[in-house]
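To: structure desk
From: M.T.
Subject: fold request, one chain
Message: Could you run this one when you get a chance? Sequence is below, nothing fancy, just the single chain.
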Amino acid sequence: MANPSPPLFSGLAKALIVFAAFVIAVAGMRAASGVLVPLMLAMFVASICAPAFFAIQRLRIPPVLAIMVLLLGLVLAALLIVVIIEVSVGGLEDKLPAYQTVVQRQFEDLVIWLKDVGTGIDEDEIRALLDWRTGFAWLRFYLAKAPAFIGQTVFVLILTAFVLLEAQSLPRKLRGIPEFSPAFWRQFDQVVADVRRYMSIKTLTSLLTAALVFLWVILLGIDFAPLLGFLAFVLNFIPVLGSVFAGIPGVALALVKHGPGAALLCGLGYVIINVAVSNIVEPRLMGRRLGLSPLVVIFSLVFWGWVFGPVGMLLSLPLTMIAKIVMEGFPESRWVAALLGGTQGHNLELPLDPSRHQALSQGASAESPERVGSDSNNTPSA
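Reply: Done. Structure tokens follow.
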């Protein structure tokens, strides 16, 4: 009797191959970020607009007309953003020389104070450590990129329209993939519904945060309140660090215009607003969590930010959820999905027997058209 042939690859060899494929895929995504980022932003906007899109369709409005209604709203929102950015950029360019004079004077006062308290640090070392010119150089760099941002906004809106149109047929196309069982698609439906709910609620809480920040900086008499509110809205989508990034411009403007006391008061207001919204309002609205551990949230923020830049940080949680459900669909990678999950994460019960898996897949493909249509209508799409 012939001995059974040994496996083609050992466990270690398989692990090395998977790791090499992962590295190649990440390198490819990072190299193609210029192409992928606008598409991901369009899917991000489409996921926010999807509930409104399907609600309009339930009124028996044709998909093309529903897209036009949504695009009109998006164009109005984009015009508002463009006006805020254009006015703020023009105002910043006009006030930048005055800000530089104030910052230079405050910097000299700080150097004198540090010498008086006897820190033992050389004056040249202090100036090298606290070089205020670097901050203004970065500010000018990003101000110069404002027109490009406006052009990308128009491109993203066009892509969003196509993504929403494709959302009609995408569920049926995905369910035709035989490698995934009906249990996987039930899990997929639930996770995508969770991601959509997360994006919708996060949009509402970000709007609330932006409104409170806008009112707070107006009360303190800080310049560029609309821009600070817009930054608070956008950066609130970035977990953990987004609120910190959003508070830096407001505190800096308060320091330049009104001094350290106003800067401290402004920062305290940012902290109170973000803590109240994140720890009181969001938990009441979110209800069930997305099933990611806190450590994974931090890691995904760093990883996707490294791959795609600021947009990757913005979309870190949805991207990680998508990666998690894909890995849950394969027995070989299910342990990685378990590591990504929290204590109340999603658990798939997929068949491990290949013959049973094939039978379930064939059964899913033999479902009635009415059942498939019902499932596709209930499947959330990006």
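Reply (cont.): The CA atoms of residues 100 and 136 lie 8 Å apart. Let me know if you need anything else for the meeting.
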